[in-house]
Design a protein that fits this description.
The complex is a heterodimer. By secondary structure, chain A is mostly helical. Chain A has helices at residues 7-10, 13-22, 34-38, 49-58, 61-66, 69-72, 78-82, 89-101, 115-120, 123-133. Chain A starts with 6 loop residues before the first helix and ends with a helix. Chain B is an alpha/beta fold. Chain B is globular. Classes of the chains: A mainly alpha, B alpha/beta.
Chain lengths: 135, 226
């Protein structure tokens, strides 16, 4: 895959926004891959957690906001607990979700849930997914 | 011993059996868990964004409810409530400016929150105050040959700063089960994610996909977590 890196992308306000919302220093990452090695959901992801950080450093906004991974991450904090550089990867992924959610681009359509599903799922799971995946 | 108790939504619904059995057992251990007279949603999912104070209002309001009972600590049973209340508490304790803003937002509350409530999980109360050896003495029917895989999930142990035990290899549940006479087996997936925040996106496909692709998401782990 050919990847074009440009100064324009790196200086995109998106990078600053991700750093601001997440409170993380993206450049601290040296790509050891420990986050992706421990992540229980990588088999479902199109961009792995360490790649998310790399893409965010380089300002690959379109790739990130289109990715499946940002919605697969359940914020279980395994990556955060294991990062040798102390980066909270889950917070970085949350920041990318927030950038979309704050434009009212919800990922969960609660009205589409069937009554049977609503009965099966504990309230805490419904509320937490509304909190994570709706604006 | 008396302690304030914050139940949360799920303990009054799908997990009513967990509440009933806990309160009944605590009575036998001479602990009087007093449910808060008023409580609201715990805030469900600690907000990870730095600029999102509004989502810390719900947990802090609950901590004000605790102060109104003239105690300075509260016990939770639900892992999510524990994590959200404790993290919001730590967040405002380390950031007085945020605490002022939240207090200002809740100007109609008679009591101001000052970071002075301690959030405890049931397991901490059993381990640190009642102590497992005392629990063992009160066992009426030992769990005998039951082999139990103990599942913690993420929120009881992560992040490290608020977790109630070791972040990678917690043992509090195993020790409790041993005290009750059961055989706590080694369970390598004990702190893996159960993905509950994703359940309602599509319960059936999620369960199907993840019980096959992620062996750690077995139904046993799921039922213990929730």
């Amino acid at each position: 895959m050919r990847i074009n890196i440009s100064k324009r992308k790196i200086k995109d306000p998106f990078v600053t926004k991700v750093e601001e919302i997440s409170g993380q220093n993206l450049l601290a990452c040296y790509q050891c891959g420990k986050c992706s090695a421990g992540c229980p959901a990588v088999s479902e992801m199109d961009i792995l957690p360490n790649q998310i950080i790399r893409y965010a450093q380089l300002g690959f906004k379109d790739e990130l906001i289109r990715s499946k991974s940002i919605w697969i991450c359940a914020s279980c904090f395994t990556c955060n607990a294991r990062c040798p550089k102390g980066i909270n990867i889950a917070e970085v992924i949350e920041a990318i979700r927030q950038i979309l959610l704050r434009k009212r681009e919800d990922h969960l359509k609660i009205e589409k849930l069937s009554d049977a599903d609503k009965e099966d799922v504990p309230p805490i799971a419904i509320i937490s997914s509304m909190r994570k995946f709706t604006s | 011993m008396k302690i304030s108790y914050y139940p949360g939504c799920t303990l009054k619904n799908n997990a009513k059996n967990f509440e009933d059995s806990t309160l009944c057992s605590l009575k036998r251990l001479e602990v009087e868990a007093e449910e808060l007279e008023r409580w609201n949603c715990c805030g469900t999912v600690f907000s990870l964004a730095t600029d999102d104070l509004i989502h810390h209002v719900a947990p802090i309001r609950n901590l004000i409810r605790v102060k109104e009972t003239n105690t300075n600590r509260v016990m939770t049973l639900c892992a999510m409530c524990f994590n959200t209340l404790k993290r919001a508490n730590e967040r405002v304790k380390s950031d007085p400016e945020s605490l002022d803003k939240i207090n200002e937002f809740m100007y109609r509350e008679e009591v101001k929150y000052e970071g002075d409530v301690k959030v405890l999980h049931l397991l901490e109360l059993l381990r640190d105050e009642i102590k497992f050896e005392n629990i063992a003495k009160k066992v009426v029917k030992p769990l005998g040959n039951l082999k139990i895989a103990n599942y913690y999930g993420c929120l009881l142990v992560r992040p490290k700063e608020i977790g109630l035990d070791d972040v990678e290899n917690p043992t509090v549940l195993e020790n409790l089960m041993t005290a009750l006479g059961a055989d706590a087996i080694d369970f390598p997936y004990k702190t893996e994610c159960c993905a509950s925040t994703r359940l309602s996106i599509n319960l059936k496909t999620w369960l199907k996909e993840h019980t096959t692709s992620l062996p750690r998401l077995n139904p046993r782990a799921l039922s213990l977590y929730l």
